[in-house]
From TrEMBL:
Coiled coil: none annotated. The keyword Mitochondrion does not apply. Pfam families: DUF3431. Residues 375-392 have a biased composition (Basic and acidic residues). This is Uncharacterized protein. PANTHER family: DUF3431 DOMAIN CONTAINING PROTEIN (PTHR37490:SF3), EXPRESSED PROTEIN (PTHR37490). It comes from the Eukaryota. Residues 375-408 are annotated as: Disordered. Residues 1-32 form the signal peptide. Keywords: Signal. The keyword Signal applies. Transmembrane segments: none annotated.
């Protein structure tokens, strides 16, 4: 008697058919999404601190930066200000102007300082990296990395280049939402097109960006082994920024240790090894080689100065440029006046010169009053949540076409 086909064959056949059907259903559609999972308007789930997969020192793998976790409106955010300084630098202004701000001060040339660094090398970068490494598991909601001086050209103009105002007015909700925020709003220097690692030697601008000559391909590969070479590195200067706890922890601590080891071992001049990091903090915390946020948005959402859009913001600074141009014309006369007073003499202006001086002073005074009004209006507008929302970045496109021109 002949035996029939083995019973295992149909079972295997059915199993293979089921696997084929499962594979087909899981194929992406023409729009690049799985047919079995995608629904219109569906949002991906966010994870506060996603686990990094792979070798943390393989820089071809970018951290998976997730959407920032904001607190309910009206909530307080814990923060600390990390301040590198030398023994000679005076930070007494911080106790006077921001007495409640929690400071973590690194006195880099004091071997007995409370907070220590491995070596005084790499300027503020060594301090910033050491703080992150030492406090990786014990961070506040926001970490502000700032210099020791109060007034500097690279602070924000609308705040009188006053670092105390930066601390007082910073919107920590913006830091939580974005993860990383440069504390300076103005693009120049650093944006929109700054460092090129393949720039011909004859094209370097040693006055405006002396650090660029140090930014060559081999330096990028030392700092970010395995990462693609970017066509440009562009981000706002000048190594003062705020980062959320969530964003810091989304970068593996091994990378911060790697960055610090590079600082400790590089033969590059101390001044420029620190400047190298000045133009990659935004890359470290966002994965973007170019990060140049709109200046009006930075001022509005970041600090509460809302002019009503990019155009009105630009118009304000055009007025300021014209005012400064007039001041430049007045300065020589002011110097003559000051020098004459020191000698107990009259400046000896001619009638024509007196007329010019009076015209310039009247014009500058009128422009100052006009700009004061515009600035006051901007701060009042910044107190209005709806006005502030109008100048804040958003991925929400539900009403985006309301802004398009309509042909009536």
């Amino acid at each position: 008697m002949l035996s029939g086909p083995p019973r295992l064959v149909p079972v295997v056949f059915v199993f293979l058919c089921l696997c084929l059907a499962w594979w087909y259903v899981g194929l992406p559609s023409a729009h690049g999404r799985g047919l079995s999972t995608w629904t219109p308007g569906q949002k991906p789930a966010t994870v506060a601190t996603p686990a990094f997969r792979g070798d943390p020192l393989d820089f071809s793998i970018l951290p998976k930066f997730s959407d920032g976790q904001r607190k309910p409106p009206g909530s307080n955010y814990t923060f600390k200000i990390v301040v590198p300084k030398t023994e000679k630098e005076d930070i007494g202004w911080m106790a006077q102007e921001i007495p409640d701000a929690p400071l973590v001060v690194y006195e880099v040339d004091n071997p007995n300082a409370e907070h220590k660094i491995p070596k005084n090398k790499g300027r503020e970068a060594m301090v910033y990296l050491s703080y992150i490494i030492d406090h990786y598991d014990d961070l506040p909601d926001t970490v502000m990395f700032m210099h020791a001086h109060r007034h500097a050209w690279h602070n924000n103009m609308l705040m009188g280049v006053d670092a105390a105002q930066i601390v007082k007015r910073l919107n920590h909700e913006r830091v939580a939402r974005l993860g990383y925020m440069n504390l300076r709003c103005h693009h120049d220097p650093g944006c929109p097109d700054w460092i090129h690692m393949d720039r011909p030697g004859g094209d370097f601008d040693f006055f405006h960006k002396p650090e660029e000559i140090y930014w060559r391909r081999n330096i990028w590969e030392e700092i970010h082994p395995g990462a693609p070479i970017p066509p440009s590195i562009s981000g706002i200067c000048c190594a003062q920024f705020a980062v959320s706890k969530q964003r810091i922890r989304e970068v593996p601590i091994e990378r911060f240790l790697h960055y610090r080891k590079w600082l400790l071992t590089t033969s590059m001049d101390d001044q420029f090894s620190g400047r190298v990091f000045e133009y990659i903090w935004h890359y470290i915390f966002t994965g973007h080689e170019i990060l140049c946020p709109a200046m009006n948005t930075c001022y509005c959402d970041g600090y509460g100065y809302c002019f009503g859009g990019r155009q009105k913001f630009a118009e304000y600074f055009e007025k300021q440029d014209k005012r400064n141009e007039l001041l430049g014309k007045l300065e020589p006369f002011n110097h003559r006046e000051d020098d004459a007073k020191k000698e107990g003499k009259e400046p000896g202006f001619s009638r024509e010169e007196l007329h010019i001086v009076n015209q310039l002073r009247v014009a500058i005074s009128a422009m100052d009053r006009e700009m004061d009004v515009l600035r006051d209006e901007a701060t009042k507008r910044g107190d209005d949540p709806n006005a502030r929302k109008e100048e804040t970045e958003s991925w929400d496109s539900s009403h985006i076409w309301d802004y398009a021109p309509h042909n009536d």
